[in-house]
């Protein structure tokens, strides 16, 4: 089965399943069921079974899923059974907050660089990583073969930075800038805009 044949919404739910499995394991459980996952996540058991069926059979009817095995399979599917080097572009409040986050590596990601063009910020530390001049970004991306970047830059420069990243070989961009980027098909962009999230939630308010 090709990557593009699996709906993006299904791929987006796999990390949620993986996180819930980790919670269940922390509770001391070794086996779970699609119904238990559904109850915990507010989904239907049929939806969970359908999502997993895109990738194979991971459980048996009547016995459920072995949590450790399913975690391992989902990590392989998501390709986080290894550590990916990533960079953050933009060392404003958001970029610095992300730079301080200590949970990336335990989930398969290692921060290889934090870049900005502000002379006041370049050379200062965020946690245990030094902010570098954005002019140094190409060297870091090439040397460490970085394929993942987080954009935390103003919207007026987001497209030009994205263009440079794609040219350097970056294939996955997590974009916090409130702008829709134009990228070639080989580069995947995922958008995280808190304003869009808030505006979506207000629809459901009285």
- DSSP helix fraction: 40-55%
CATH fold type of the largest domain:
Rossmann fold
Assigned CATH superfamily of the largest domain: NAD(P)-binding Rossmann-like Domain
Q: Characterize the largest beta sheet: strand count, sense, and whether it forms a barrel.
A: 7 strands, mixed
Summed up, the helix count is: 8
Please state the structural category: alpha/beta
Shape: elongated
Task: Just name the CATH architecture of the largest domain.
Answer: 3-Layer(aba) Sandwich
Strand order of the largest sheet: 6-7-5-4-8-9-10
Q: What's the Cα radius of gyration?
A: 19 Å
Describe the structure.
The chain is of the alpha/beta class. The protein folds into 2 domains: 75 residues, Winged helix-like DNA-binding domain superfamily/Winged helix DNA-binding domain (Arc Repressor Mutant, subunit A, Orthogonal Bundle); 113 residues, NAD(P)-binding Rossmann-like Domain (Rossmann fold, 3-Layer(aba) Sandwich), CATH 3.40.50. The chain has 8 helices and 10 strands. It has a 7-stranded mixed β-sheet. Strands 1-3-2 form a 3-stranded antiparallel β-sheet. Helix 1 packs antiparallel against helix 4 and helix 2 packs across helix 3. The longest helix is centred in the N-terminal third of the chain and has 19 residues. It is elongated and about 60 Å long. The chain starts with 7 loop residues before the first helix and ends with a helix.
């Amino acid at each position: 089965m090709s990557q593009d044949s699996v709906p993006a919404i299904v791929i987006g739910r796999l990390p949620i399943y993986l996180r819930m499995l980790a919670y269940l394991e922390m509770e001391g459980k070794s086996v779970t069921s699609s119904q238990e996952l559904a109850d915990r996540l507010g989904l239907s058991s049929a939806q969970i079974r359908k999502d997993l069926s895109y990738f194979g059979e991971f459980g048996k009817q009547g016995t459920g899923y072995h949590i450790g095995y399913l975690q391992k399979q989902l990590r392989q599917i998501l390709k986080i059974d290894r550590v990916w080097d990533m960079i953050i572009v933009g060392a404003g409040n958001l970029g610095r907050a992300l730079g301080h986050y200590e949970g990336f590596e335990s989930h398969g990601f290692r921060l290889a660089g934090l870049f900005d063009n502000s002379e006041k910020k370049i050379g200062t530390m965020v946690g245990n990583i030094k902010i570098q001049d954005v002019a140094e970004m190409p060297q870091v991306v090439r040397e460490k073969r970085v394929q993942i970047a987080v954009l935390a830059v103003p919207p007026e420069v987001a497209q030009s930075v994205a263009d440079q990243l794609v040219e350097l070989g970056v294939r996955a961009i997590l974009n916090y800038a409130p702008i829709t980027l134009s990228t070639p098909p080989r580069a995947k962009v995922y958008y995280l805009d808190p304003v869009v999230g808030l505006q979506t939630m207000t629809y459901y308010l009285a």
